[in-house]
Structure formats: C-alpha cells, structure tokens
Design goal:
With 921 residues, the protein is α/β, with parallel strands linked by helices. 40% of the residues lie in helices and 12% in strands. The strands form 6 sheets. It has a 6-stranded antiparallel sheet. The longest helix has 20 residues, at 741-760. The protein is globular.
Amino acid sequence: MKGRPDEPELIARALGARVRGEVDGSARRRAEYSSDASNYRVPPTAVVFPLDDADVAAALAFAGEHGLPLTARGGGTSVAGNAVGTGLVLDFSRHMHAIGPIDPDGGRVTLQPGVVLGRLQRAAAVHGLRFGPDPSTQSRCTLGGMIGNNACGPRAVAWGRTADNVRTLRILDGTGAERLLGTDLAALPGLPEFTRAHLALLRTDLGRFDRQASGYGLEHLLPERGSAVARAFAGSEGTCGILLDATVDLVPLPGATVLTVLGYPDMATAADDIAAVLAVRPTAIEGIDARLVDVVRAERGAVPELPRGAAWLFVETSGDTADSARDAARELCLTAGAVDSTIVTDRAATAALWQIRADGAGLAGRSPDGKPAWPGWEDAAVPPERLGAYLREFGALTAEHGVDGLLYGHIGDGCIHVRLDLPIAEAPRRFRAFLLDAADLVVRHGGSLSGEHGDGRARSELLARMYSPAALAAFGEFKALFDPGGVLNPGVLVAPSPIDADLRVAGLTPVPTRGIALQGDGGDLSTAVHRCVGVGSCRADSGGFMCPSFRATADEKDSTRGRARVLQEVVRGALPITGPEVHGSLDLCLSCRACATDCPAGVDMATYKSEVLYRRYQGKLRPIDHYTLGGLPRWLALASRVPRLANALAGVGPLRRIGLRAAGIDPRRRVPALAEHRVDRARRVTGTGPEVLLWIDTFTDAFDPAIATAAIGLLESLGYRVRLPERRVCCGLTWITTGQLDTARTRLLATLDELDTHIRAGGRVVGLEPSCTAALRADLPELLPDDPRSAPTAAAVRTLAEFLLAHPDWTPPRRDGRTVVVQPHCHQYATAGFSADRQILAAMGVQLHEISGCCGLAGNFGMQAGHFDISVAIAGNGLLPALQAVPADAVLLADGFSCRTQAAELAGYEARHLAQFLWED
C-alpha cells in the first residue's frame, strides 16, 4: 500500500487537495456510509462527493496510488452489500445528477449517475415518455445504481431490465482510462479476443432466462445479441468501471392502464397460473401473500377490498385506449385460473391497491411474529414455469431451518422477494447453512441467486454453487480486462468476501433503555436503532413527510438512515454517546416523528433522540435552550400573569434580540404575542349530554385561547357537557423533546391524576394542539409503562376531527367555493393520521390543497440558535410554495401552534384552527 496514510482524516485531507468536491474521513461520516440496505457493515476510509468527471478521475487515481479500494454509490439502497467498501466510497447522488435534453423523437436521454429515477420519470412524462424499469425504490434510487445492479421492477415484464434499456455508457475503467461502451467490442482492449475464446460458454451458461442476474451478463457480448458491451457492463456492480454518464432509452407512456386483481389459494398456485396471465401481454405483474396484506392492514389500519383468496396477482394491462386496456383485463379474468377476480378502473382505487404492494415491501422487514426480518435471500429467481414448484420446496426449506418471512415479488419474471428472520446472531453456523441450502435449491430449479438486486457481499460467495469453474474463471478474466489492479469494489462477484463476514448485527449485546420504555423493541436501544436496515425511504425526493432535514440539505447526515447508522455505532461501542459525532448527527433532527410512520421499518428517531439526550445530559449541565425552550410551560405560566408587559418587552427590538441570544434562541425569530386572557377554567359546565374533557394545552392557553372557545362552542352545540382540566396540567412535550425525561414523567403523573376520574368513567379527551395530543397518545405509555392508568388514558385521547366524525348524525357545515390550504401537523400525521380531518374538509365542499411535509418550525427546533436557515429551507419545500400557489383569499388551516407561527413569520399568513373554521359564522 505504497504511500497510504494511516488515518482516514489524513487520507481525506490529501485527496481533498486534489478534488473540488468534499472529502470526509470523519468518524461520523464513515459511520453513515458503513452500510447500505444490506446486512453488512463495512466502514469506509473516506467518503467523496465528486462534483464532476475530473473529481471522479482524481479519486480513482488516488485510490490506485495508495492501494485503496474504490466503491461507487448512488442512493445506497443496495440490499446485497454492493455499495459498501473499506476504501473510498464515491457518493454520486449529491452533485452528479444532471439530466440532459430529452430527445422525444428518438426516445432517449443522457444523464449523470446520481439522477434519482423518480425525477427522471417526472421529466420524461412531460414528453409522454418514461424509463421502463421501475423498482420500488424509485423515489430515491439512482440510475447509476440501477445500471450497476441491472435493476428491474414490476414493469420489466413489459419493458425489460435496465440492461435492456441502455444505449451507451461513458465510464472510467480501473486504470483511469475513459471508455465509451456501446455495441463495439473494440471499446475495451482484449474484449474481442475474450468473447471469441468463450463463445460456447456464453451461449450455454449465461442468459438462460431473463432474470438470470447473478454473475456478469456476458451473454450480451455474443454477436447474435448485438455485441452489446454496454448491456454486459450493466449488472457489474461497480467492479468493472465507474460510470460518468449514460444514454438510456425511454418508452412511450401507455394511453390507458387497467388493474386486475386475481385471487388464488396460495402463492405457489398463483405462480402455476403465470402462463395464462402472460398471454394477455401485461405491463406489470406483482404477487403478494395474504400474510403480508395482514401486516399492512395491522400497520395502516385498513386496506382496499380484495377478491377472495390467500394470495393475489396484481396485473396491469394497457392499451392505446381505456377500452382496449379493459378488453385485455376481461380476457384475463376469463382465461386465468383464479378463484376470484376484480377489475379496477378508478385511479384512486388503483393507487390504493398498488400502495398495498409498496407498503408491504417495506413492512416485510418484520416476520409474521414480529421478529426482525433481513435481506440476504430476498431476490432469487427461477424460470417462470418453475416458480410454483420452487415456492413449494422453498416453503419446506424455510420450515426445516426454522425461519419465516413474507412473500411478494415479480411473479411474471419468476423473481420472488422475501425477507427472512435469518439467524444472523448465530452466524456463521445457522445463517450460512440456510443460505447454502437455499442456493442449492434455486440451482436445482435452473434459477439464479439474484433476479435483480445483484450478488454483492450477500451472494457472491455462492456463485460457485451456481456456475462451473470455467464460468467463474471467465468472470475473473472479464473483470481483469476492465480493472487489472482490482481497485474497483473488491470482494464482490470475483474473489468474493464470505457471506457471513462483516454482518452488521452479529455479536451485538443488548443496550437496556434508561429513559423511554421502547416496548416494541423489548426495552433494548440496540434493537431499536437496528430497525433501520437502510431501505432509504427517508431519502425520498417526494411524498410523505420524512425526512424534512434531508430534503433541505440532501446530505446523508440529515437522513433518518444516516442518524440510525451513527447510533448503531454508539450501541456497539464504536462511538461515544457524548461525542461530537452524535451531536452532529442529531442536531438537525426536528423530532417531527414522521419517520415513525413513513419509515417502513418503524424507525422512530424522535424517540431515540430523546433517549440519547437523556443519557447524554442526565445529572449534567445542559445547553441553555433545554432550560428555556424545554421548560417553556413554566416560563409561559409566569409571563401570562403579566401578558401586556411581556409583549411590550418582546416588542423592543434590541432587548428582544439580546434576550433571545441569552436564551439560546435565534435572534431572527419573533416572539409570539401572549393572549391577554387565558382560558377560563372556572367556567360553568352546561348541558345534560355526555361529558367530554377538552384538553387545554400550554400553547392554546397562552397564545390562542380563542381556539378553545370555538371548540367549546362547537362541542356544546352537539349536546356535550364540556369539562376542562381544573389544574394546568401538561403533556410534558417540551421536556420530552429535550431529553428531560424525569421532569416529563413528573408532569405526566400529574396529568394522570387529573384525568383519572374522567377516564375511569369511560370519558373521552379531545385535544386541540396536535403535538400535545400525540404526546398523550404515544409518549405517555412509553414514559410510564408500569402505571396502569397510562394505556387507558392514551386510548381515550382523540383529535377534534376524530371525535366529531364519531358523533352520530353530525354533518360538517358547508363552505362551498372556499379555497383551503391545510398544513397537517407532523406529530398528528405520525400518531393519528390526517384522514379524519381530510374527510371533514371534503364534506364541507372546499377546494382543498393539502401540504405534504413539515412546516420547518417543529416546536423548539426552528427556534434554537443555528437552526433558522434550515427551518426556512424546510418551509420552502412545502409550506411557502403552497401559500404562493393559491389565491390571496385562501384559508390556511393549521392546528399546530408551530405551523401557525411559521406561516405568520415567514409568509405573513394568519392561519386558523379547524375548530375555528367549523365554528365561524
């Protein structure tokens, strides 16, 4: 390793002097990139964020000079461990993501490797085009990664794999030479001779069926297949070259599509029927097992109605017109051997059904009995005509080894996905034994270890069970033509690493929780943070609320996954919880809780952050804002006694700025005005109907008591006796978010005492501030798990919308013609959902614009010193453009005090609460 420095930071500095992009060898950054979406943990030496081709060339040259491996990475969604390495990791997603001009007539486009597929699809759709393959990770996977793994997705049955859709690839080979790969074998010296020498092997061992993705796709080199070097390069998993740009084909969007759902007794029987399904030339075929549907139903609350059966095929037919697409669907229902079927033409219903598949793919990370389920054997494929038999034998094999998982996948291509509760903790014994037997099984059926995800570290060692020694030798020769020095992604495909080396969770010991119960993870912080398996939904470029900080910075550090990786290093003892790495990782976490819902693995970073802060500062001096913002209910109780004086002082600019700085608050923030009168808790309760307790939170009480007045009027008009807490009790939220959990527990105990009589009588508690409602529902049982009052109290809490919808015969008032922009609160989105509010607003006849994403203030986060700019940037991704796009007389609804404050401060928009909108004259 000539000239190689000993320390990552030294390497980063040395390489940083030769490139324009960032090079980071810090312990935190290395932790963030130590894994992808696989089972493997391989910390790199340094991470490079190249700005251009010159940076890529310089990094490759540096790696060669210093004996460092080099691994290319896009979205980091590889489940096989082909985007991790011990040397330099190049992240192309940060800067190299340009899309060239789209040629609509030729149906092609040239783009850089860091382009996210979803972004390409949106750009192509303007021209009536799309990229054919569409893996489920399309909201965050990059085209470079798709080319590296030869990705497919459900519509590969119609439009082929990624390899089938590339025209030319411009790469750097392992020596640093730039090469343009297309259909000329002479593009790489020695490749014509290699191909002639191995013609027989390429014709017999490779390309036996479409999803034979394991190994190199050398069949594309054959003259009868067009000598397609670019296609042979696809699926090489970064072992042969570094992609600079690619020219890919685009296909026309169908004129119309129809979804048909076919029901079968089981997945194997569904697979037996695949010939009949393929006969109608569908554009997509997906299979899903009843047990996976049950998991989706349990997590999401409901799923659309499905035809009879215990397994289903989702089949998309298309045509130039809706009639032709429906005709194909009707033919399918007549010819298929399903026990029941449904044809769906409604767009919303179609989207809801496909969402079952999308949600199920993420939720499969837990086995049916709730144990963590892992990739590793998630991607096998066999010829479609053999799939039914394979599935029956696979079921027997999993039973024999005592492992279980949930089945789904691309049935039309013979590719089945399953995550299994593999005994990784017992590696290598049981883990290795299962994988060896599974490999032998798929080979007996003429199949492939991988159908689309690549072999990576998860399966490369198993190639010897699938291929002959001659084929393996040919793989080695092919790589050597591109990478004679073995610099590029070593340990993958050729000279593979053992399948049971570097497993992320092997040998870990439990880390008992101290502050929060983490009941869903057995009270183990290690199990909790290892929920993150790296699927990268937190890096999605659209949809949902997660992760607002990443959407603002596009930095892995600020993704839920990046934070989880750092905490995984903490629980394994590789990083101190008091170190700057942990602070840097969690600093821009808004504690918005969106990940608890949007993350398919159920990662709850807000809870983990509270636990970490509790451990970090227990018995120690805290940052000043923990005392000021964390103890805000105390200070508001004092200030509300003299609201005019407090408001007057806050209105003096210099005094306000000095005070805010001293309190650890950004001086650019305004101080919300206190209400002159708080909620009257001594008001006389009227009426003879059922009693409901209206929870008066700190923020409504101190700033917006008119909201409570509107809610009281609304509820009393429905015949309820509205009671308020007699004392000013608190949910403890501000102490929870700052990790002051002992104080939060004290506050919550007082709350339980106050509510106990009402709860015992079967009463309901209606909350007005979403964050406080969420704290009572979600945090209370976690902070006081042993108090028998916690669970029934949490179960009794309702949002205003939920409570109103449950009232018999209540009809929302009409507001026809009104334009309404609504900002759902992140905490409500995560704990209660927004469907009840959405249903009420739809019934009011308004023109509704629902914002997707966080407002950016998020309680104390946007107020803290150093967070103002990122808070504004987050608002710029949702709240602010939504307000700019609607008429000036549009109503902004925001139940959250933070959301209303952010809108007023950044856009001059006065928002209203749902209670006010419903109760207005």
